[in-house]
Amino acid sequence: MVLSAATALVLGLAGLLLGVALGCTSVGGVLLVPFLAYGLGLPVHAAIAVALYSYLLSGLVAVLLYARHGSIHWRMAGWLAAAALPGAFLGARLAAALSGTVLQALIALLLVTAGLQAVLRRKQRPAEPPALAVAVLLALGALTGFVSAMVGAGGAVLLVPVLVAMEQPVLLALGLGQLIQVPISAVASWANWRAGMLDLRTGTLLAVALSLGIAVGTPLAHALPQALLRRVLGFAMLACGAAVVARLLWR
After folding, report:
1. Rounded CA gap, 53 and 211, in Å?
2. Neighbours of 31 (CB within 10 A)
3. Residue 21 in contact with residue 153, Cβ under 8 Å?
4. pLDDT digits 0-9 by tens, 69-109
5. In Å, what is the CA distance from 70 to each residue of 121, 174, 212?
6. In terms of pTM, does the model score above 0.70?
7. Side-chain half-sphere of 102: how many Cα atoms within 13 Å?
8. Whole-number Å distance between alpha carbons of 242 and 94
9. Cβ density class 38-65: b for 16+ within 10 Å, e for less
10. Looking at the 3D structure of the chain, how many domains does it have?
């Protein structure tokens, strides 16, 4: 895709804004593919490939920032990332042949359900979050990798709501959501590049803009009180769920 100066400016500004949302809530990436496909006119499969590639650099930036704040649980991250690799490979291979409509509808349902739970919940969270078994982490990682590579929404859009619903701390869920994007993006981008669907120039510009936004959004997430951050995350999930529904209805 040949980018005009105006298109590149719009892409950069949109990436910056979505990056702030990603850094603060980890779920803003669900809006990226609709923007690329319907705002810039990229074919859907190319939009998915560009979005996934952009998560590689921006995900690394987010992981470094969250790690500096002590918000990455490395044992959990290892199991999630290990399982996400084969899941992402299978999802990327199937993305060229299958429609992601049903998966996107399920993601919208998950986002709305988890968002409502986060916004309406009044019960105190346990002082010690329940430990998740290795089998649970492997299942979550594989499913997240598969779905993310299929629809290009970023691993956090599926993983963060599930972890929050499982009584995990919000910042821990956000940190793991940022980290799992890196292996998913790497595997899916390699598969998409091999298939000739990846526009490296557009993806690199978007990755830089997202990274700058994440650098702003991550400190904001750690500055907010946990109760307020949970509500912010809840409203963000509701907004993203509504955006996915609107996208499906538009199609």
Report:
1. 12
2. 24
3. no
4. 888 989 999 999 999 999 888 887 776 665 656 666 766 77
5. 26, 12, 20
6. yes
7. 3
8. 26
9. eebebebbbbbbbbbbbbbbbbbbbbeb
10. 1
